[in-house]
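WARN no homologs supplied; continuing
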Amino acid sequence: MKKIGQQFLLLGWLFLLLLPSSLAQEIPQGFATWLELLREDARSAGISEKTLDAALADLKAPEPRVIELDQKQPEKTTSLEDYVAARVSQERIAEGRLMLKRYPTWLGRVERKYKVQRRFIVALWGIESSYGRHTGKHPVIPALVTLAYDTRRGDYFRKELIEALKILDDGHVSLSRMKGSWAGAMGPFQFMPSSYRHYAVDADGDGRIDIWGSVPDALGSAANYLAKAGWKNDQTWGRPVKLTQKIASSQTGLDTRLPLSRWQALGVRRSNGRALPRRDLQASLLVADDPAASSYLVYSNFRALRRWNRSNAFAVAVGTLAESYAENRSR
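OK structure emitted
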């Protein structure tokens, strides 16, 4: 009987090994086992044992609060109008104007080098962290471990976790300083670890890339991100508009792009009722579910903002805040 039992056990292990990977991933793993497999992946990525011990040794379980927050993101639970209104406040507009005056030299250098208008860099700063006041106090590694262990977006956060461990291993920041949001976003512009690796720059020339403590590095990194996302500095992001006639739903949304002249012919006007600009720009029309809410014509730069955060509400908020610093913009 003992021999038969051993044979069945061996067959069971062989069955698990031969399972297709998609099915094997569905077999639940204990957290400790999962963490050890993560260590193996991290070692394969070249991360040192010293870094792994420091970053992972004290982790005993995922954090339920992080999972809860991931499932209640405001971009998914709040209407576009409410989302924008909550973020484009008079206080935030006034503080953004102050930042434009406080950092004219560095904003000017960044604007010239990366060809991104400073008002959009400052607006991103305002939306992401209230100009650096709210960068997050959550240790990044435990947050990313939790989200990587969770099955909803586990693959994405596992990659971000490996990138975060590389940042630690390369000595860019200490473990104690590596704090951010519950989702692992870091610094005044809330860079995910992969964004840091691809876009962060040493703007102040001190030999370090410090998005946590150097305002020039943070500003330059944000501008570099937008530049590589296809930013066009001769355009704005879009504009709120009013519709003077009904437009077919097949012509709305980001999948449809038409020149401004065509939107003009379809009865789209600026929010004040004036004609659209006479420019050869391609634009998409976003129509709110609520007929009383604003609609928006959005340009190429709106799509660059969505590369940063794939949320229409986020991109509209950044664009609206940027233009609120100087309401006489008319591009």
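The longest helix spans residues 2-18.
OK
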